[in-house]
């Protein structure tokens, strides 16, 4: 037999493609937050810089754990390179209001003037 049967190879590659297509959207929203709900909530279209705070008030900058001091440094460099950039702040709704304001103040004092709070849409009554 001088021919190579490529059908099993194609089958395996298609299965791997389907698995990667299903798994990739799950990786993007890996930070589990319980966002506050508002009637005016909209989907973020082109978010470049996202700061997240989970239930334990741990900070993440684009899914990477970060300290408040390092966040201030990164925001200062962001404000120098792109002063019109919007920073999206996602915070768990169970966090105390003061914790969220400390992070928001750190972002604003670093020179970023546009900070948006991210919320979830209201649940529709059944």
Write the CATH fold name.
Answer: Nucleotidyltransferase, domain 5
The CATH architecture comes to 2-Layer Sandwich
- Radius of gyration equals 21 Å
Helix share bin: 25-40%
Q: In percent terms, what proportion of residues is strand?
A: 15-25%
Summed over residues and divided by their number, the pLDDT gives a mean of 82
Structural class: alpha/beta
- The total strand number stands at 7
Poorly predicted residue ranges: none
Main sheet: strands, sense, barrel: 5 strands, mixed
Number of domains: 1
Number of helices: 3
The multimeric state of the shown protein is single chain
Explained architecture:
It is a single chain. With 126 residues, this protein is α/β, with parallel strands linked by helices. The protein has one domain: Nucleotidyltransferase, domain 5, CATH 3.30.420. The model has no long low-confidence stretch (mean pLDDT 82).
Concise synopsis of the structure shown:
The chain has 126 residues and is α/β, with parallel strands linked by helices.
List keywords for this structure.
alpha/beta; two-stranded parallel ribbon; 7 strands; 126 residues; elongated; Nucleotidyltransferase, domain 5
Topology:
Layout: H1 7-28, E1 37-38, E2 49-53, E3 59-61, E4 64-66, H2 68-81, E5 86-91, H3 97-109, E6 114-117, E7 120-121
Parallel strand pairs: 1-7, 2-5, 5-6
Antiparallel strand pairs: 2-3, 3-4
Helix pairs in contact: 2-3
């Amino acid at each position: 037999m001088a021919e190579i049967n490529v059908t099993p190879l194609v089958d395996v590659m298609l299965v791997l493609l389907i698995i990667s297509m299903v798994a990739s959207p799950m990786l993007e929203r890996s930070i589990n937050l319980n966002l506050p709900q508002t009637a005016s909530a909209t989907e973020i279209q082109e978010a470049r810089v996202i700061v997240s705070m989970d239930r334990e008030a741990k900070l993440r900058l684009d899914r990477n754990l970060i300290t408040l001091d390092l966040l201030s440094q990164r925001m200062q460099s962001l404000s120098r390179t792109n002063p019109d950039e919007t920073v999206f702040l996602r915070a768990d709704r169970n966090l105390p209001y003061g914790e969220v304001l400390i992070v928001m103040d750190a972002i604003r004092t670093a020179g970023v003037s546009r900070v948006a709070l991210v919320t979830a849409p209201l649940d529709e009554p059944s």
